[in-house]
Prior knowledge:
Elements: H1 2-54, E1 55-56, E2 59-60, E3 65-69, E4 73-78, H2 83-88, E5 97-103, H3 108-120, E6 124-129, E7 142-148, H4 151-168, E8 172-175, E9 178-185, H5 190-196, E10 203-210, H6 212-225, E11 228-234, E12 246-252, H7 254-274, E13 280-281
Antiparallel strand pairs: 1-2, 3-4, 4-5, 5-7, 6-7, 8-9, 8-13, 9-10, 10-12, 11-12
Helix pairs in contact: 3-4, 3-5, 6-7
Amino acid sequence: MDQEIINKVLEELRKKTNCENSSDTTDKTQNTQNSKSELKEEKIIEKEEKREAFMINDTPVITEYVGCAIGDTVGLVIANIDGSIQEKMNLDPKYRSLGIISARTGAGPHIMAADEAVKATNTVIAAIELPRDTKGGAGHGSLIIFASEDVSDARRAVEVALKDVERTFGDVYGCDAGHAELHYTARASLALEKAYGAPLGKSFGIVVGAPAGVGLVMADTAMKTANVELVTYASPNDGTSHSNEVIISITGDSGAVKQSVIAAREVGIGILKSMGQNPISTTKPYI
């Protein structure tokens, strides 16, 4: 009888010991997991702190960055360009500050916006280049460089262009089949002169259609609609970066240029619709 009691007591002691050991193991495992979790959180916080040191509200904290806009467009400024690069760019030595507009999609809208920017600032156009891009589409991207003696002028030009590109995208009508793109200004300035040879101070229009056949019909319509003068003609092998477009620029009386551009727009949109597409304005039409 006594032995039976002793055995029961020993059994209870073993159970209690096993339970305590199990609890210790669980606590250790939990502590290890907590330590790993805390370490992971510390690393995440460290990464965020490093990121925040470079970004504030997703805006880079670097002096070169000015802003961004529609069309994967970024605006940048270089306060004092490297002398050897300046020489290779054939820049006048007095122009040490550069403003930069660079975009993946849209050349016409950016050139028109840059034209407004040079009107509003003490800058010149150092370069306009149209890379074959559009993120795989039918048209161009753009690289526009303003030059000035004072960095504040270069920065202001970029700011004006970034703001205006929202407007100048208004008569760019895109769809999977292609696009119809129209631009108009009552008074051409240095950017349009640089890009298209536009007569300074005169009304100026640009007509673009893709695929190129659409652009050719749009160009013909524009020239036949009103008494305008052809300034430039560009096709995939001539005057473009092998983009699938036909592009013309026109000048003349303000009313005539606008009438021609509007007529070309209607024809271009009509053809794209006949292809089973629905071209829509990128922002809000302004012509």
